[in-house]
């Protein structure tokens, strides 16, 4: 089975299983097209929390499925491919957080949602790229803060909030690879374009001199901004899966990726065929041990409440 027939079968099985399909904006176009909801990490966490469906098929990466399982423990969460990981989430171990906490007993740990459940269980609050600035700006002024694991997002949050943050030196291999040299020529070629940049990018805060009015946004923030802006052209710095949504939701505008080969191989492991098999065979169930989930839930509930 392929193409339209496969998509129809996915939709039939979805109804039969009383399932909802949630997809991240970096997913393959054909996967986005069968989803009930496509969004960023924050939007997906909220949808997972509020859904009444019995089964959540998570078309994204493992930490996102774990987040859904923690926020809605009554539901069965399926990840169509267990190899859909995240290099950023994998870079930080619980021991790294424990070592910092031992040195800073009064410290606050802010964990980007791109972390494993065991790290979230040690955090005071989780954030996504959509609400990190707001969450950090509300934290007490007199306590040390450890921001983990993305150093580029952390630097952006520190700059905007004016807060001093201890940063873990983690990075996403896809976004860290989007650098200044990829940017210059494109901005010169499209002088009237607006510049949308994901805060995980290696060409993050340090490249703002090239375009000081750049908009640092989550993936969903990019879609919302592009739809509402007067500009007709946008230079886009993030994983290229976002282009499908941008073109779909703002078809009259033009989008130019800073790095056309910025592809997250983990996100692309989820194919329509695997979504079909996931629903057919109810695989692969993502479970988080209750003791870990209970502690991580506090930090995640604090996250979904902001922004
Ligand atoms: P968003 O929450 O902005 O969609 O980002 C998720 C992610 O994994 C970026 O690499
Ligand atoms: Fe993780 Fe980077 Fe892929 Fe996002 S793009 S899921 S941060 S590896």
Structure description:
By secondary structure, the protein is of the alpha/beta class. It has three domains: 3-84 and 267-287, NadA-like (Rossmann fold), CATH 3.40.50; 88-171, Rossmann fold (3-Layer(aba) Sandwich); 174-257, Rossmann fold, CATH 3.40.50.10800. The chain has helices spanning 3-16, 29-34, 41-50, 62-71, 87-90, 94-103, 117-120, 132-137, 151-161, 173-176, 180-189, 219-228, 242-249, 272-281, 290-304, and strands spanning 19-24, 37-39, 55-59, 76-78, 108-112, 125-127, 145-148, 166-167, 194-197, 215-216, 233-237, 254-257. Helix 4 links the parallel strand 3 (55-59) and strand 4. The protein is globular, with a radius of gyration of 19 Å. The protein starts with a helix and ends with a helix. The mean pLDDT is 97.
